[in-house]
């Protein structure tokens, strides 16, 4: 950006952004903080915070942090390994495998957890299969507690590392690694001394997202946690127990931990970041000469791909067997479309789909408006306080959906300035707004990355050719950041369309979503119908991802 | 410098600081209409900053930029009729070759048919019309270079600014493009300001050259003057790769007497290694045969002297390790303070 | 670019069309009774009351309580159909309910209704000791509460996560209340829960998990309500059997109430009466396995499994349970759960 002073339009935009942030991020958090400082008699007190120092709260905090650290490490190793292998090794069917490996991104957490449940619990498909193959009477292993949560977390979160590191690796000039090899460095030495340090931005970026997501994760700890405590499940318990003040205090603690991690990582990154400007275009990366390692990677990639699709196949299987036959020896059952025909015969079948899609699209529009304009301001070098703006905008990622929903309920139960003087609770718009707030960091980060990737000389070239600011923005900048923005929009959509934890607290009759429908089927023990809904949701997301990718690839040949 | 009515660009007392350090100090330049003017200097001398100030992409802390007798100092790039050819070409990756070139005309709301005509005529000129509908990302470096040039020429600017446009090309392509650039500039007659660190390029292309070092103009003049009559040792060293001799060496070796503190400045082609009685005071440390020339490096009193001679269809007279003296081939050796 | 704007336009149309409205009176029901039962009664009720559009939200009773509590300032529901009496008692105290006395008010025992007419019982839910009848029988499975804490059942008991389950919260609280009644303090009750925790092999996150674990290849035992056990066995062939604890069991009363500040109180009353009529209660018993709380329903019109169920009801102070449940469960969660491992 040139030394343009903030024009009138920019000031209006900035005011809108500040209004949104104050109303929908800061105000709900403030309400939460206020709630946490009130004891049941509505009197100001620190009772709830003193409870945080109890043994149980401490163990919940410790477990949550430990779980997040393990999740980051596990997802990191998995994601970096496959990103590296796919970049440097000969692996057949690379394209298809890549798509398969990214499936967890398109799998809503609720569906993922339920699918794992029916795959791996005592009566799960895999356990039954193994038991019948080896003729065992007792299940050969138990899938619960920490192992289960970590496996599910890695399953859901490693694609972040895979994506970030893949794009990081693409930026590394192969001549640098070639130089290392030619100096006699081994594969591992080159990886640890040359490649890894250059991946620091990608890895810290992914770590941040995964750490926050893991801190905020609810479904997996709730279902598999057993008697282990985690912050999110403690918040749930406190809330169920009617202790909103303690639930709020726990939420505040969780938010503080996430934000502390964010700050820590930012500090580390600013010290470690390595940038190098190459003259000329970087050469494409070369394949590693040793083929044997490629063989190992191929095997690993295929086995991992099977692991990725197994939960989905489980769901498919469950949706195709008659309700209740789960308990019989279901390998003998014949497949049927009974579950599908039952849910399709519901006259309101399309309602949840329409709601989920409509509200997610609304969330996409909101995040587009706020996220893109914010990133435009963030990337404008000459603005003071932009790092505060950036910090506030990444806050919601570290706050669990339950907490955001709680903040929304507390804030918008009565009319406010921010809600055009209506009470938002129970209305249609509260859900898109909650989705938008939760996903604002995703959109902002994607478009910030988009803005950063634009060579400043393009803008200058346009200016010297006589184009004004708005024309340059429309004709040059927008088309160039469009892929990043559309990618961000796609992520926001996927995250919203299967969102469960905040939806369940905020939905009303006219805003039932697919995830609410799945939950209510599970609650009434209709696993087949739940699985059928899950498969339909999964297919819908996959189709949308497929078509948007295709349009993306078509519209612009550059990334 | 005398002010002429035909001046296309005048930079008056331009100064610029970045974070407290002087990047440019009181720069004064005048570029005549139709002239090919080069700014040459080592990396970090401020030449790109000067170019960006001329284009309006940066603003000077002090001084004026006058384009076509109009004070344009405060003008945004859009308001100046200048075009830039960027080092990395800065082609819009979201557009085809045609769209890139047409962009500047569309901005001016030119009639579509006229745009078409003009764009094709320019693409013809730079010999890339056959790729008009191709995405620019698929072009080779040389082709991108030509599109970048066409994009600027088509808008018929008062002034074209070149920011090291050839530095990303390989050697032979660079020579080829250089010739073409010169041809196009002459045909179009557009005033050009060309920034480069390559003095050969500057000498070959320019009508006049300004040598810049540490943000200060060292000398301005036509290529011949700058090469043969450097005003200071920086210019002599940077443009001509001259050898320098102090008063003692100058007297001892060449019998040229200069005052203490002065330097005898000798271009590599003005000195030749010789052998014979009393002449073995030097040592040939390196001989490089490049085809049309032979380059000797002669070590005398811990100083390395460069000598370049036309190879003249014969084997180099000396080889590394030989003892030799030096002989001056010119009577017009320069003496610099 | 044009295509993108047309997408956005399309999208806006989709969103706005989602907000379409009609002129009917909207009656919002919060209920844990499940999609099928709710759909059934929505249809039936709407067919006799065409001017009313019944909209129900299907969620756990604890979630209903939470919602109504948070919506206190701006009530969004009219009828709260279904929750244990203990939750209704709390709601009554928090002034969340509207007084309404149905026509059948005197056809119900005094323990199954609010003294002040804020809520009334609809169903009775006896709790049972459920077991896997692939391996166990009515004879060799636990017969009474105290059998459950015997060493022979170590790691064979599966419990639905009590913090999140209304049923389990009431059973656990009843144990404490019973202890206070018998010994004057909570200690014995908590000691019993401690022993139960030691015998518990796992806490299931939701009922389905509990069913699956209970029906595995182990001789597993659980605590759950009788109608659900029968329903799962009959509809989905789960291998379940059950015993009524011989010394007396906890019988939950499930109720109905009108929400304070309901937007459509008249329609709410109509719905209230409709779903608690004799005809509806019989249908609920037949189709959805609910045992009516009204004592005036002829036994011969009810299904065999209800008529044939003979159990002893534990005498409990429900007010005390309602008041102390949160505190007791919190204590259980922080001091007992998982501590014996």
Which SSEs are present, and which pair or pack?
The complex is a heterotrimer of chains A (559), B (337) and C (341).
Chain A lengths: L7 H29 L10 H5 L3 H34 L5 H8 L7 H12 L4 H9 L11 H26 L3 H9 L4 H12 L1 H17 L2 H6 L6 H10 L3 H29 L18 H30 L17 H7 L5 H29 L7 H9 L6 H12 L17 H24 L2 H9 L4 H29 L5 H4 L7 H10 L3 H29 L4
Helix pairs in contact in A: 1-13, 1-16, 1-18, 3-7, 3-10, 3-14, 5-14, 7-10, 8-9, 10-13, 12-13, 14-24, 15-24, 16-17, 16-19, 16-21, 16-23, 18-19, 19-21, 20-21, 21-24, 23-24
Chain B lengths: L6 E12 L2 E12 L3 E5 L6 H9 L6 E6 L2 E2 L10 E4 L11 H11 L4 H14 L15 H13 L5 E5 L7 H18 L2 E6 L2 H7 L2 E6 L2 E6 L1 H6 L4 H8 L2 E3 L1 H8 L8 E4 L4 E4 L7 E8 L3 E8 L2 E8 L12 E6 L5 E3 L1
Parallel strand pairs in B: 3-8, 3-9, 6-7, 7-8
Antiparallel strand pairs in B: 1-2, 1-4, 4-5, 9-10, 11-12, 12-18, 13-17, 14-15, 14-17, 15-16
Chain C lengths: L1 H16 L7 E7 L3 H14 L3 E7 L2 H10 L8 E6 H9 L3 E2 L20 E14 L12 H4 L8 E4 L5 H18 L3 H13 E5 L2 H8 L6 E5 H11 L3 E4 L7 E9 L5 H11 L2 H11 L2 E2 L11 H4 L10 H19 L5
Helix pairs in contact in C: 4-13, 6-7, 6-13
Report on the architecture of this protein.
The complex is a heterotrimer of chains A (about 550), B (about 325) and C (about 350). Chain A is built from 24 helices and no strands. With about 550 residues, chain A is mostly helical. In chain A, helix 3 (about 55-90) packs across helix 14 (about 290-320), helix 14 packs across helix 24 and helix 16 runs antiparallel to helix 17. Chain B is built from 9 helices and 18 strands. Chain B is globular. In chain B, about 30% of the residues lie in helices and about 30% in strands. Chain C has 2 domains: about 20-125 and about 250-305, D-Maltodextrin-Binding Protein, domain 2 (3-Layer(aba) Sandwich), CATH 3.40.190; about 125-250 and about 315-335, Periplasmic binding protein-like II (D-Maltodextrin-Binding Protein, domain 2), CATH 3.40.190. In chain C, strands 1, 2, 3, 4, 5, 6, 7, 8, 9, 10 and 11 form an 11-stranded mixed β-sheet that branches. The radius of gyration of chain C is 22 Å and the shape is globular. Chains A and C meet through helix 11, helix 12, helix 16, helix 21 and helix 23 of A and helix 1, strand 2, helix 3, helix 8 and helix 9 of C.
